[in-house]
Amino acid sequence: MEIFYKLIEVAVTLIEDTIIISSVVAISGRRYAIKKHVLGVWVSVVAMSLAVSGLNRIEMFSFITPIFGMLIVLLISRLLSSGSLLLRATACVTTFFVIQSIDYILFIGMGLLHGNPNETFATFMSPGTLRNLYLFLNKVTDIVVFFLLRKDLHKLSSFRNSLQGLLFGASLLSYCSMQYLFSVVLYGDYVSLQIASIISFFFLLCFMAVVIFALLSVTKSEKHRSDNEILQRTNEIMEQNYQRMHEDVHQNAKLLHDFHHHSAAIRELAAQKKTDEIIEYIDSMLSTSYEAIEFCNCSCDIINAVINCKALEARSRHIEFRYQVDFHEPTNLKPVDICAVLANQIENALEACEKIEDPDKRIVRVEIRQRDGFALFKVMNTVRENPFRYEDKLLTTKTDTSRTHGLGLKNISDIAKKYSGSMQTNYQDGMFISTVLLCFSQE
Is the pLDDT of residue 288 over 70? Predict the structure, then answer.
């Protein structure tokens, strides 16, 4: 029976060392191909297990043994991993902290169920059924946690050196505090419990600080991503606007060139006094349709760009597009915010019009006014049915995930609030009306 218990101890040591080495290498980066890597891991596991078993013979349950184990893993990872010393050290301390946290949680939990962790310490450390049950649950938990996290372990290597150093310091401090708290559970007196309480409160404060910092970072990241999307959309609209203006200039130059030819032909016919031929030639010219493009030309370049691009887009979609713009004073409104509001309003209007089967009923009207420190962006469009018929809150019906659809009504409302303004949407006489009011100061 004694041999059976020893085999269990050896198997547990091999499993734990395999998980530790595999985790550290997964975090810091594998150096070799898979076959050579697996061979290296197993050789390292055997060597580490022999070393740990030798240390455990000196002291059955030593708090010093894991420290020597960390140093061994750090040396082994130098051979199996391509990561830096800081990354490997961070991975090593973090892995040991997680592994031993699981050990202690199960130990104390089973101790409470069995009686008292302090009283059952010797029982858990002595070969027997209770220890075997503890080891089985412990290693199964380690294996499950490893396989749940192994695909994401490499993400820790993407941290900057400063963040890796912060994680290393936090893991090391957490590990030392954990060891102290566990010793208090087993051997602590009243004063030790008070110190343990102080440490626990300190860690709770640190945890709350980290959570708040993480939430602020996520919020900042989302804001940065949103701003980048707006800037990208603004740049695309400006580029399209200038491209289409260039095409229009080229078309006008072509018409002017043709006009010279027509004038020369009419002059020649007039010199020959061929009145009938002149009339026929002029009738032929008038029968040719020239589609003139009227560009918006207010004092705001981004408004010009959005209106011009959307006007041509509406024409290609067979949608009647009318606009009235009175925007003449420079303001402190950011071009990206104007683009986000106006482009989204018009894009939503065009998409709603496309759902109308009768092309003659597809109408979009844009009204932009500026007066007394207020800027009004009003977009009206015909709709197939009342969008507020079933619920007061508008829901998106866009299904194409291959492109960015803008910020949506909620974020347009956020931009309006940013400038102490407002956003309203309503339905009247077959028209959906989106109105955004922004307050500004003159530059």
Answer: no
pLDDT tens digit sequence for 136-147? 999 999 999 999
User: Are 302 and 440 members of one domain?
Assistant: yes
Last residue of a domain, one of 188, 207, 224: 188
Classify each residue of 302-339 as buried b or exposed e, where b means 16 or more C-beta atoms within 10 Å of its C-beta.
bbbbbbbbbbbebeeeebebebebebeeebebbbbbbb
Whole-number average pLDDT of the chain: 79
Give CA separation, 227 vs 213, 322, 332, in Å.
Answer: 21, 29, 17
For residue 140, is it within any domain?
Answer: yes
Angle, vertex CA 183, rays to CA 179 and CA 185, nearest 5: 120
Same domain as 304, residue 179: no
Q: Is residue 259 part of a domain?
A: no
Task: Flag whether 283 is in a domain.
Answer: no
Q: Please give the residue range of the domain that contains residue 335.
A: 297-443
Is 306 among the domain residues? yes
Q: What is the DSSP string of 224-256?
A: HHHHHHHHHHHHHHHHHHHHHHHHHHHHHHHHH
Give the model confidence (pLDDT) of 203-225 as tens digits.
767 766 776 676 667 667 776 67
Rounded alpha-carbon distances, angstroms, from residue 36 to 20, 40, 204: 18, 6, 44
Residues 6 or more apart from 22 whose CB is under 8 A from it?
Answer: 41, 146, 150
Tens of pLDDT, residue by residue over 241-276, are 656 655 655 565 666 656 666 677 777 777 777 787
What was the pLDDT predicted at 407?
47
Assess whether 169 and 305 both reside in one domain: no
* Structure tokens belonging to residue 65: 């043994």
- C-alpha 81/C-alpha 69 separation (Å) is 17
